[in-house]
Every structure is written in structure tokens, then in C-alpha cells.
Design goal:
- The structure holds two protein chains of two kinds.
- Chain A has eleven helices and no strands.
- Chain A is mainly α.
- Chain A has a single domain, classed as MetI-like (MetI-like fold, Orthogonal Bundle), CATH 1.10.3720.
- Chain B is of the alpha/beta class.
- In chain B, strands 6-7-8-3-9-10 form a six-stranded mixed sheet, with helices on both faces. Chain B has a six-stranded mixed sheet with strand order 16-17-18-13-19-20, with helices on both faces.
- In chain B, a hairpin with a 2-residue loop joins strand 19 (about 490-495) and strand 20.
- The chains are: A mainly alpha, B alpha/beta.
- At the A-B interface, helix 8 and helix 9 of A face helix 15 of B.
Chain lengths: ~280, ~550
């Protein structure tokens, strides 16, 4: 117990702040139906009600409660971003470790395919694919995961190539271990620190991309609440001096900063710097 | 300064290093006096503080270390609390440093001579033109081939021994009063080591330069230094003139260092001619993909149960390639590898689990051979689980038994990570991992060359014990002749991928030898301060008579 407190004490304030913010977000996302005063897409009043006791953040363009939508938005936006990032890493790491371990033509084919995807601007490519495959949540997750897995692939492959030449990997190979053992037991644990840091950063990018796509109308579809489309739907309020549309925007911003604080700290630890 | 004051005078020096947020002493109150033109040898195991002390003589401590107490005077100037400018002014003009790995210390992007002239010009002792002429003169003195042009090559275009000599030349560029040599020949082959040693000795004598020679190899330092200092745990064990300390060491620790080279295994019976070898190479030729000529040419060796075959040769002789061919990482172009009379597939991927189990390997550097994220339990347990299907309690019991067999306490070590072990202990885990498969044949690839002598001796004894217990057949790859002398039943001398000579230990070590074996054997430093002088004279007279 004391050692756990000790460890907590050694974590810099910025990282603690990041952890606190993320814990709050997760809490809100998990208990959204309990916390939220109204239903997710329930129309409860006239459009664009001002802030009041009944409607903490007013109502949106259809008369739905903004605070409720913020709470449910956390669930949708963060949940989808998290699943997408996990899938991104699964795809990227498996492809990268395959490339690094097998080398030769497997490496060539995967690497060149990745080059092709990377060479197309991310947002335009995502828009293109979503237009073709439709804008369901699943196609959103898969399209973003594939596009971003190419960036993960680049990093994971570079790390893995350095690990594959180690004697312990050679020892496992000539012991007769299978590909999956070598990738999951010999390479992955040793590649983990930079990949964990990358996970945090990538999560932010995925999150921003989903919000961006929602703003453009190709992301999470109404009536599901999400912060990106909430900015778009209520953007016109800005012209009347109402700051409400900035609230979902700053929720996105705050999460991004929090994640980056933690990532910075992890990178610092992984790089072995003392001060 | 007057001639009577010592060049370097270190008094009660304490250097501390920071670990786990605490300052720990690395050097604990040392005194050292070095006169002009004198060569002092610093000997000790790794971690004894010899490099730290060597650097301290330049008024330098590594990052994360600090001078805690004591003084370092260089020619009357106090260095521990002098300002940065003073120390910078001394370095390279009056004090120079030759590092262990010249290859890592030269900038690969510049020609040797450009790096050589940089300091004389910067310190304005020479113009660029003079410095270049001087460099060529120094290259000639150090007997580098084609001294007029070799300086215009890049570091990767010359050999390791030449690079080490070029670095010594560079250290000489400003004619310093003191040169610190930090293990300058440790990474070199014995035959190259001779050239570097004699070159260093000549030039130090000629210019009357004082030197601190840091090494863990007694025989080498005996050739170079007039005075020896033996360090252990940051303290002086013994200090005396070379001749005296070699013939009559006072301390037990010093004596134990001397005794290491006396270890030798018992002679074993010759195998009967009809006995089937465990593993047999039959005229194996192998080529790396994309290379025009083979790295192994027509190699045939038999490995018998309970016996050790030592493979000796310089770097690039194909020793390690031989291991790669046997383990199936580099399939042979022609010839066969037989395991108990049956042909092994060339690629390890085509071998059966049992074939893979029979031939195991122990690596040179245990740090990279053990997965840093796996516990000892998993490292040793995995081959048992993989080849023999052990699990649960049975597996744990076996792992514990094996840890006891390699003389490590199971309770203490079973749940540690490799990073929580010392170098020698890591190597023991490497041995245990090979044993866990219950093999018949083990390749030991330079297993002791990264270890201190005392630790290495422990490993050799352990390997010998295990061999007798399990009737193991060892292929022992090494470039260290004294190890071969200690443990080999049979010796194979290799050069450029071919076998030069092979036979029993007695045959190889008693004359007449093949010319190359002779060169290799005579190049091994002996514990006799006059050895290098004698050897060079012998070789010179031989050359004369051949002309």
C-alpha cells in the first residue's frame, strides 16, 4: 500500500491531471444513462433554449437537451475511438511483426501496400471509402482502422526489426517455435513501451478524425449523439454570441491534452531519462 | 613545472555515481602517482573502477558521476575543481585518450587524416599542412601499410587493428605528456593484438610519453607497463613494479587472478574408431546469399559424445558460420550434416522437433541471448514445455533442479528477470536453457569471452562438470587460446573458412605446427615481461633468414 502511494507520488502532476481527466471521462461514458437527466435523442423543449435550471446547457437545434447529449456523446465518441484504435494496433502490429520476422517478399508486399495507402491524404481517402461503403458505425471503425494502421505499421516494424536480430529471437527460431509465439512472446513484450506511447497519440488522432468526419456529416450518424456533429449542428449559435458549441469542442480538446500528458510521461519513462 | 614533481598525482580520490537516486562510491579513496615517461598498468575485473580512474586522470567523470573527495593534480594543476576551459585546454594537447573501440570512436563520415589534424589545428600547434605531414610520419612509425595514403581512407575502409593504430597516432598528434589507453586491444585478434601492442610500446618509448594502460588481461599489461596496480571494488589491492608483482604477488586476490590460467580438464579417452559421432560434418561448403565466394570450404569434423572440440581462428575465419550451418540458419551448398548417422535437413524449418532438440546453442553475449522481459522460470521452462510437454508442478520442479545444477539457488533466482543477474549468472542461465532441452550436442559460441577471468573460469568448470554428468558433446568456438588449452579434447584451427589443422589437444599444442597455427599460438601473450621483445626479435630474425 505504501509502495503504491510512493509510486503515485513519483508521477508528475501533468500525468496525474491526465489520469484524473480520463477517469472522469470513463466514468461519465460508463454511467451515461444514470447521470443524464433526459434520453439521448428525446426532444424535451423548443429549439435553442438558453442555459437554465432544467436544461443546464440549453437545447440544440431540434430541442434536445445539450447536457444529456454531451454525456451520451462521451460514450459514443470515446467508445468508438477506443475500439477503432485497438483495431488499428491489432492490424498494424500483426502486419509489422509479420514483416519483420518473415522478411523477404512478405515484407516487400506489406510495406509497399502500406506506402500506397500512406501516399493518399488521410481525410480524403477516408471520405472516399465512407462514400463507397456507407456510413455505418462498423464501416467507420474499419476504414479509420485500416488507414491509421499504416502509421502504426511503420513504427512497429522499425522497432521489431531491431528486436528480430537479437540472439533470443534466433534462439526461439532454432528451438522450432512457431511464428505466433515469436511475435507475441519474444517481440511484443520488448516492443511494448514505444507502442504504448504511440497508442495514446494514435487514440487522439483517431478521435479527432471521427469528430472531423462527424462534423462533415460522414461520421457517427444522427440521432446518436457525438461531440463532432454537436459542434456542426449548433455552430450557428456562435453568431449570436452563445458559447454552447464550444463546449463539445473543448471536451475533445481536454481529452486530447489529457492523453498527451500521460503519453509524454510514459515516453519519458521508456526512454530512461532521469530528470 | 619542475621535472621532479610527478606528472599525475591523485590523492584520496573518491568518485561517486548516482544509482536509485543515491550516491554510491565507485572509486573509494585511491592514491596514484605517475612520473614522466612511466607506464602504469591498471588491472581489475569489470566494475573495479579502472576506467573511472583512468578518466579521472584527465579530470573527467562520466555523466551521473561526480568527484566527491580528494584531488587530481596534473603537472601541478588541480583538475577536480578547475574550470571547464582549463581542462579542455589540457585534453588532447597534453592528455590524450585511446578508447577500446576505435571503430565506435572515429567519425565514420570523415577521412582518418582529417580527424587527425583537427586538434593540432584547433589548438594552433600546427598548421593543417604540417599536421598532415606529421600524421603521415606517425603512421609510418606505427607501421601502418602505405602510410602516405592510408590517412585518406574512411574508418570502414581499414581493419580493426589498423584503426586502433590510427587512433594511437591521433592521440600522439599534439605530443601529449600522458596517454590513457582503455583496453585498446581487447576487441582484437591475438595476431593483430601483437602489431598494436608493439606499435604502442615503440611510440610511447620513443616520445617518452607517460601512459596509463587499462586492461583486464595480465599478460598484455605485463608487456607494456613498468608498474602495475590491481583494483577491486574501487580500492587498490596491490601496487608494485611489474616483475615483482608477477613473480611474488602478496595478496590472495592477485594470486587468484594469476591462477585462473592454470585450470585444465582431465584428458579423456580417445573414442573408439567404430563409435558413431553424435554430430558429423562431411565436406560442408556454405555461401552467404549474395556473396560470390564460400565462407566455409570443405569442412569435415566429427563430434563425439562426452568430448569437446574447440574451433579456433581469427574473426572472419568462419567459426560462427559453422555454428549457423549446424543450427540450420545457413544451409550448406554441398556436403552434409549428420546427426547420429542421419542426415539433417539444411534449413532449421525442415527439421523435426527432436532433431532441433538434440543440438542446442549457448551464445556469446548473454544480455542479448536472454529475453529481457521473461523471468528465469520461463526462459528455462520453455524448452522443457516445448520439447517435452512438461507443465505445472512437474515443470517447476525440473526448473528448480536445473537451477541447482547450474549452481544458482532456485528460491532466489527463479522469479528474477535477466536484468537482475550478474554477467556470469546470465551466462549460467544461457547454459541452463540449452540443457533444458536435454540435448546431446551443444554449441558454445565464445561463451566466456565477454566475462572476467575469474567468472569465466567458473563457467568453464561448470561446463566441464555438466559434460561429465550428461555425456554432452561440445563444439567450443573461441579465439582465446588459453581457453582452448584448458578445455579442448580436440582442436580445429580455421582460417578463411578452411580447416588449417585439426587433431587432439596434445598434437596441436606440441610442435611441429602448420605455419598458421604457429603464428596463432606464438601470438598469445605470456606472463613474462620480456615475451613481446623476444617474440618480435625471433620473428625479425626469421624474416631475415627467409630473405
Amino acid at each position: 500500500m505504501t509502495s503504491a502511494l510512493q509510486k503515485l507520488h513519483n508521477i508528475p502532476a501533468t500525468a496525474l491531471f491526465g489520469m484524473f481527466v480520463i477517469a472522469c471521462y470513463i466514468f461519465v461514458a460508463l454511467f451515461a444513462p444514470v447521470i443524464a437527466p433526459y434520453g439521448e435523442s428525446e426532444i424535451v423543449a423548443y429549439e435553442f433554449e438558453p442555459w437554465s435550471r432544467d436544461f443546464w446547457l440549453g437545447t440544440d437545434s431540434l430541442g434536445r437537451d445539450m447536457a444529456t447529449r454531451m454525456i451520451y456523446g462521451a460514450r459514443n465518441t470515446i467508445g468508438i475511438a477506443f475500439v477503432t484504435t485497438l483495431l488499428t494496433f491489432l492490424l498494424g502490429c500483426v502486419a509489422a511483426f509479420l514483416s519483420a520476422t518473415l522478411q523477404g517478399w512478405v515484407d516487400q508486399i506489406i510495406s509497399r501496400a502500406v506506402d500506397v495507402i500512406i501516399s493518399i491524404p488521410t481525410l480524403i481517402f477516408a471520405l472516399l471509402l465512407l462514400t463507397i461503403f456507407g456510413t455505418s458505425v462498423y464501416s467507420l471503425i474499419i476504414v479509420i482502422a485500416i488507414i491509421y494502421s499504416t502509421f502504426v505499421f511503420r513504427i512497429a516494424r522499425a522497432v521489431a526489426v531491431g528486436i528480430v536480430v537479437m540472439d533470443y529471437v534466433e534462439a526461439a527460431q532454432i528451438r522450432g517455435e512457431g511464428l505466433w509465439w515469436i511475435m507475441s512472446r519474444e517481440i511484443l513484450p520488448n516492443a511494448a513501451p514505444p507502442l504504448v506511447a504511440e497508442f495514446g497519440l494514435r487514440f487522439c488522432f483517431v478521435f479527432l478524425t471521427i469528430s472531423g468526419l462527424s462534423f462533415l456529416g460522414l461520421g457517427i450518424q444522427p440521432p446518436a449523439a457525438d461531440w463532432g456533429s454537436m459542434v456542426r449542428e449548433n455552430a450557428s449559435l456562435i453568431t449570436f454570441g452563445d458559447l454552447t458549441p464550444l463546449i463539445p469542442a473543448s471536451a475533445i480538446g481536454l481529452l486530447t491534452i489529457a492523453v498527451n500528458f500521460i503519453v509524454d510521461w510514459m515516453l519519458h519513462k521508456a526512454s530512461g531519462l532521469k530528470e | 613545472m619542475s621535472k621532479d614533481t610527478p606528472l599525475v598525482e591523485i590523492r584520496n580520490l573518491v568518485i561517486e555515481g548516482k544509482s536509485d537516486n543515491q550516491w554510491q562510491p565507485i572509486v573509494k579513496g585511491l592514491d596514484l602517482t605517475l612520473n614522466r615517461g612511466e607506464v602504469l598498468g591498471l588491472i581489475g575485473e569489470s566494475g573495479a573502477g579502472k576506467s573511472t580512474l583512468g578518466l579521472a586522470a584527465m579530470g573527467f567523470v562520466r555523466d551521473g558521476c561526480r568527484f566527491a573527495e580528494g584531488t587530481v593534480h596534473f603537472d601541478g594543476t588541480e583538475l577536480t575543481n578547475s574550470d571547464w576551459e582549463t581542462r579542455r585546454g589540457l585534453r588532447s594537447t597534453r592528455i590524450a585518450y585511446v578508447a577500446q573501440s576505435a571503430a565506435a570512436s572515429f567519425n565514420p563520415a570523415f577521412q582518418l587524416i582529417e580527424q587527425h589534424v583537427e586538434f593540432p589545428v584547433l589548438r594552433q600547434t600546427h598548421t593543417a599542412e604540417e599536421a598532415r605531414e606529421d600524421a603521415i610520419a606517425l603512421y609510418e612509425k606505427l607501421r601502418l601499410p602505405d602510410p602516405g595514403n592510408i590517412g585518406f581512407r574512411y574508418p570502414h575502409q581499414v581493419s580493426g587493428g589498423q584503426l586502433q593504430r590510427a587512433m594511437t597516432a591521433m592521440a600522439m598528434a599534439c605530443r601529449p605528456d600522458l596517454i590513457i589507453f582503455d583496453e585498446p586491444t581487447t576487441a582484437l585478434d591475438v595476431t593483430t593484438q601483437i602489431e598494436v601492442l608493439s606499435a604502442i610500446r615503440n611510440i610511447v618509448e620513443e616520445f617518452g610519453t607517460a601512459a596509463i594502460y587499462i586492461t583486464h588481461d595480465l599478460a598484455v599489461v605485463a608487456q607494456m607497463a613498468s608498474k602495475l596496480m590491481i583494483l577491486r571494488h574501487g580500492e587498490i589491492v596491490e601496487e608494485a613494479p611489474t616483475g615483482q608483482i608477477l613473480t611474488s604477488p602478496k595478496e590472495d586476490y592477485t594470486r587468484s587472478l594469476w591462477a585462473v590460467r592454470s585450470f585444465a580438464t582431465e584428458h579423456k579417452k580417445e573414442p573408439s574408431p567404430e563409435a558413431q559421432p553424435v554430430l558429423s560434418l562431411q565436406s560442408v561448403t556454405a555461401t552467404y546469399p549474395g556473396m560470390a565466394w564460400p565462407v566455409l570450404k570443405d569442412v569435415s569434423i566429427d563430434f563425439h559424445a562426452g568430448r569437446t572440440v574447440a574451433i579456433v581462428g581469427e574473426s572472419g575465419s568462419g567459426k560462427s558460420t559453422l555454428a549457423r550451418t549446424i543450427t540450420g540458419l545457413l544451409p550448406p551448398d554441398s556436403g552434409t550434416v549428420l546427426l547420429e548417422g542421419k542426415e539433417l535437413p539444411g534449413q532449421y524449418k525442415n527439421r523435426s522437433k527432436d532433431q532441433l532438440r538434440q543440438a542446442q546453442m549457448i551464445y556469446q553475449i548473454a544480455d542479448t541471448a536472454l529475453n529481457p522481459k521473461q523471468k528465469i522460470r520461463d526462459i528455462i521452462g520453455r524448452p522443457m514445455q516445448f520439447y517435452r510437454g512438461l507443465k505445472g508442478r512437474e515443470l517447476t520442479e525440473e526448473v528448480r533442479a536445473l537451477l541447482s545444477a547450474i549452481e544458482l539457488d532456485p528460491d532466489t533466482y527463479i522469479d528474477r528477470l535477466p536484468s537482475e543477474l550478474s554477467g556470469g549468472q546470465k551466462q549460467r542461465i544461457g547454459i541452463a536453457r540449452a540443457l533444458a532441452a536435454k540435448p546431446k550436442f551443444i554449441i558454445c559460441d565464445e561463451v566466456t569471452s565477454a566475462l572476467d577471468q575469474l567468472v569465466a573460469e567458473g563457467i568453464l568448470k561448470l561446463l566441464d562438470k555438466l559434460q561429465r554428468e550428461f555425456e554432452l558433446s561440445y563444439m567450443f568456438i573461441t579465439h582465446d587460446i588459453s581457453t582452448v588449452r584448458a578445455i579442448a579434447d580436440e582442436v580445429v584451427v580455421m582460417k578463411t573458412g578452411q580447416i588449417v589443422e585439426q587433431g587432439s589437444r596434445d598434437q596441436i599444442f606440441s610442435p611441429p605446427h602448420e605455419a598458421y597455427t604457429d603464428l596463432l599460438l606464438s601470438s598469445v601473450p605470456e606472463m613474462d615481461p620480456t615475451w613481446l621483445t623476444r617474440l618480435l626479435e625471433e620473428r625479425a630474425s626469421k624474416e631475415l633468414s627467409e630473405l
